[in-house]
Specification:
InterPro entries: DExx_box_DNA_helicase_dom_sf (IPR013986), DNA_helicase_UvrD/REP (IPR000212), HelD_bacillota (IPR048228), P-loop_NTPase (IPR027417), UvrD-like_ATP-bd (IPR014016), UvrD-like_helicase_C (IPR027785). With about 900 residues, the chain is of the alpha/beta class. Helices cover about 50% and strands about 15% of the residues. Helix 11 crosses helix 12 and helix 17 crosses helix 27. The protein binds adenosine-5'-triphosphate.
Length: about 900
């Protein structure tokens, strides 16, 4: 090894293997310190064998100061001092130098991969072999205490060897995988940095993971998540700095360069003096939409980097315009946190709440692309279904929005809307908390425990027992006491029940299996009591008899057997009662929730609230009707579960450390409070856009009085705003931002395209014909991800049928059941298109008959902002009011 050679040349004792084995690690640590790289043991162990690391510590402890000094000198020797400041344009010579370096890195990478390949290929066999040989290497002798101790230590030693081998194998596999990932495109960026006080400057090449040269000293590529790499995202050439655990390192960035590399060939090299090269971003954004989201590590923008690397706030709120990279930043943030805390944070300790299941598939490839495991992904609906789905038919958010959009004329509509808003509010949560306190004094509702049409324990008994407990004991704790009491009662009732007539009847009709089970149990019991008779023989005899004449009633030979069988029979029948008691089924939560929605005076009394929402009576009626059918509105599900937990005791998940909530504006303040309670040890990252708040219970994420800021308090909350929109062309952003009242603050990224095209047609038939023509043209132009976006599912069905009937082929209808996002042409309602994007978007009907209410403006905006390159809108008759209000220079009109 090169380092060992260096040391030997400098007079270090080559025979001291322990010392020299540790040397590369020590140098590595020195270099990490020197660069203030976040050199945690995870990174260290992925680059070295455990034995090398241990030896390094040995060396560090025992070697003399001059060796330590030498390590620093060596570090400098290994730092290539040849640097220069490049002009904006990369000239031919620089290009060649870059290609040469790329070749060198590629060759080194290939060699390192080839070296590890045989080991990795034979990995499974090796580990299996080690396991197989485990016991051969261990001598077990337990004759004396000393022998026993020796055996124990021999086993421990062998186990330690095994786990170290396994760990080092795992590290090798990981290293091998990350090198394979690097191979086609080892890096995407470079900064040349001269630290204040040092004369040399250093070239830092940045890629999706780190790659250290064979000498174990020189970083040929730095992981984009290392502190030093953060400069690439945060600064342009000039004064720059980066934060390390040991403090801030300041200096001058001499150069910032970007690369596009494909299959080890340089495609493009850009030098940049401003933000991260607009050229590269232009190219990336100019590409077609993908069926899966892509990583953005090469072009992360400064404000996105702040989101990714924020590691302080308990609550991080990101309010960002449509297409500003909120979801992208969130996913890179997951990768960053997994890297930074790799020793204590696992992917399954992070959960992403997505707007719908299709979105889960859309984002599922980003983390694996970065070499990280996916975090857990779910939707709030999935969670609610898990806990309430067996007792209720739950309305989902899409049914709710369909109702809101389509049932304006129906009776009780305003009351429902008022209910949706109220049940989403903090006021309702407060009301439920007060209600729980009230229940501590009166009003609890129980279900008597019934068995075979008899009431074993009555509701009254339960109630008086419950209110007999000390009233200072918390509600949930009193429920737990009651449960224990019920279980004890059931045990004594079970004993009494054994004499009942029905038990005798059942005894006469027991089948062979039940006998066998009973006698098996008896035999076990006798064995345990060391009984001196051979039950086997008896059992065989009895079994034989039974087989001979199954119809005969069994003649019980001993009273004990009969008792046991009686006990077994009753126990079996009581099992569901016990299970129900354990699951707290004796609490009538339905009744408790239902009881809330009575008259307004009672509500005020129970909840201490002074106000009831508008349309209270009608709202109560709707809620009760739904409950009586074992159904729950979407807006009732979280409150119902919350009340259940107030009474039964809260369920919490303390494993999860990071919660990501995408499309956060669609969650109610109530739901946020609920999630906070559910994950008490998690930090929250909420990403959303109030401009896309399409649900009536929406939360404004960034307003001064936002309930989200109150959730953890201002001191523990950071708010980041993203105003630059990357998804759509400048023309589309100019059009869509004009749809919003505060849209002027949205800044388009300078990527040009065609203005949105508005086609007003004489009738529906002509409109469909135009749509079909346009779809064909768009496909001819090479766009292969095209969405016809409608307001509702009913409109989607209508559009789908009409387009199909008109001869449009290869069309896909997206419903809430669709699980995967695929390339092609699709018809999709706007609320399901949230979060995803398409090359071209066609708004099926932008006339007032579809969009006319002010409340539909944001839905319309959400639909239009899904377009990356082309936006086309259609109408018959007039344009929707918010389109009419637009400046005509923002679009092209076709007739
Ligand atoms: N820094 C970046 N580099 C390259 N592409 C980017 C960058 N930021 C965002 N994008 C691209 O912009 C598009 C929109 O990003 P993303 O979906 O993350 O935005 P969003 O804010 O979540 O949007 P919405 O709220 O509309 O769903 C994606 O194609 C993404 O790859």
């Amino acid at each position: 090894m090169a380092i060992r050679q260096h040391l030997a040349n400098r007079g270090l004792n080559r025979d001291d293997k322990k010392r020299t084995d540790g040397m590369p690690v020590l140098f590595y640590i020195n270099r990490l310190n020197a660069k203030h790289h976040c050199g945690n043991i995870g990174e260290l162990s992925s680059n070295f064998m455990l034995s090398d690391i241990v030896n390094a510590f040995y060396l560090h402890l025992y070697c003399s100061t001059w060796v330590r000094g030498l390590s620093t000198v060596m570090m400098l020797l290994y730092t290539n001092p040849k640097r220069g400041v490049f002009e904006e344009m990369v000239n031919e010579q620089d290009w060649q130098q870059e290609q040469d370096r790329l070749d060198l890195v590629s060759v080194t990478l290939r060699a390192a991969i080839a070296e590890l390949e045989p080991e990795v290929a034979g990995l499974r066999d090796q580990v299996a072999e080690i396991r197989k040989r485990f016991w051969e290497e261990v001598t077990i002798n337990t004759s004396t205490h000393e022998d026993f101790e020796e055996s124990f230590y021999s086993m421990k030693q062998q186990e330690a060897v095994l786990s170290e081998r396994e760990r080092s194998h795992q590290n090798r596999v990981q290293r091998w995988k990350s090198m394979k990932r690097l191979l086609p495109s080892p890096y995407f960026g470079r900064v040349d940095f001269q630290e204040d006080g040092l004369s040399s400057n250093e070239q830092i090449y940045i890629g999706v993971s780190s790659f250290v040269d064979v000498d174990g000293l020189s970083f040929l590529v730095y992981d984009w998540r290392t502190p030093i790499a953060s400069m690439y995202y945060d600064y342009s050439p000039g004064a720059s700095a980066y934060e390390t655990p040991g403090g801030r390192v300041a200096g001058t960035m001499m150069l910032k360069r970007q690369y596009q590399i494909r299959e080890r060939e340089l495609q493009n090299v850009f030098d940049t003096s401003l933000t991260i090269g607009d050229e590269l971003l232009q190219q990336v954004l100019g590409q077609g939409a993908d069926t899966q989201m892509k990583t953005i590590v090469a072009t992360i923008q400064k404000e996105q980097n702040a989101i990714i690397r924020d590691d302080k706030s308990r609550m991080l709120i990101v309010q960002g315009a449509a297409g500003s990279g909120k979801t992208s930043a969130a996913l890179q943030r997951v990768a960053y946190l997994l890297y930074k805390h790799r020793n204590k944070l696992k992917a399954d300790q992070m959960i992403l709440f997505s707007p719908n299941p299709m979105f889960n598939s859309y984002v599922s490839t980003v983390l694996p692309e970065l070499g990280e495991e996916n975090m857990q992904q779910t939707t709030l609906q999935e969670y609610l279904e898990y806990w309430l789905g067996s007792s209720f038919r739950l309305e989902d958010p899409f049914e709710q929005i369909e109702y809101v959009l389509t049932s304006i004329q129906s009776q009780g509509y305003e009351a429902r809307l008022s209910g949706i808003r109220y049940k989403a509010s903090e006021a309702f949560l407060r009301a439920l908390q007060s209600y729980a306190l009230w229940l501590g004094k009166e009003g609890m509702m129980f279900r008597g425990i019934r068995f075979q049409d008899r009431e074993l324990i009555t509701e009254e008994q339960l109630k008086s027992r419950f209110y007999g407990y000390d009233s200072s004991i918390r509600l949930a704790n009193r429920v737990a006491l009651l449960r224990e009491w019920i279980l004890r009662e059931l045990t004594s009732l079970e004993r009494k029940e054994q004499e009942a007539r029905w038990v005798q009847d059942e005894l006469n009709y027991l089948d062979n299996d039940q006998y066998a089970e009973a006698h098996g149990a008896l035999r076990k019991k006798y064995r345990q009591e060391k009984a001196v008779f051979d039950l086997n023989e008896q059992f065989a005899e009895m079994y034989g008899e039974l087989e001979q004449d199954e119809a005969n009633d069994f003649d019980f030979s001993t009273q004990e057997e009969e008792e046991l069988l009686r006990r077994m029979i009753v126990k079996e029948h009581f099992k569901p009662l016990r299970q129900d008691a354990k699951r707290l089924k004796f609490i009538n939560v339905n009744g408790l929730y239902d009881q809330l929605f009575v008259d307004d005076d009672a509500y005020r009394l129970m909840t201490n609230e002074t106000e009831v929402p508008e349309h209270w009576q009608e709202m109560c009626k709707q809620t009760k009707e739904k409950l009586s059918r074992q159904e729950l509105f979407y807006e009732d599900a979280a409150p119902f579960l919350y009340l259940k937990e107030l009474v039964e005791g809260a369920r919490t998940n303390t494993e999860v450390r990071h919660l990501f909530i995408d499309e956060g504006q669609d969650y109610s303040p109530f739901q946020f409070l609920f999630l906070k309670q559910l994950f008490p040890r998690a930090r929250m990252t909420v990403l959303g856009d109030f401009g896309q708040a399409i649900f009536p219970q929406a939360t404004n994420l960034h307003a001064a009085d936002s309930p989200l800021i109150r959730l953890y308090g201002e001191g523990d909350t950071s708010l980041i705003r993203l105003v630059r929109s990357y998804r759509s062309t400048r023309e589309i952003v100019e059009f869509t931002k004009a749809l919003l009242p505060n849209g002027e603050e949205i800044v388009p990224f300078e990527r040009n395209g065609r203005k949105p095209v508005l086609s007003k047609m004489g009738g529906d038939k002509m409109k469909v014909a135009r749509l079909i023509e346009d779809l064909a043209e768009l496909r001819d132009e090479g766009f292969d991800s095209i969405a016809v976006i409608t307001k509702t599912m009913a409109e989607s069905l209508e559009a789908y049928e009409a387009l199909k009937a008109g001869g449009c082929e290869a069309l896909r209808l997206i419903t809430k059941e669709t699980l995967t996002f695929e390339r092609g042409t699709m018809v999709i309602p706007a609320y399901l298109a949230k979060g995803v994007e398409f090359d071209a978007v066609l708004i099926y009907d932008a006339s007032p008959r579809t969009y006319h209410r002010e409340s539909e403006r944001k839905l319309f905006y959400t639909a239009c902002t899904r377009a990356m390159h082309r936006l086309l809108l259609y109408a018959t008759g007039e344009w929707a009011p918010f389109v009419q209000a637009l400046d005509t220079s923002l679009y092209e009109e076709m007739r």
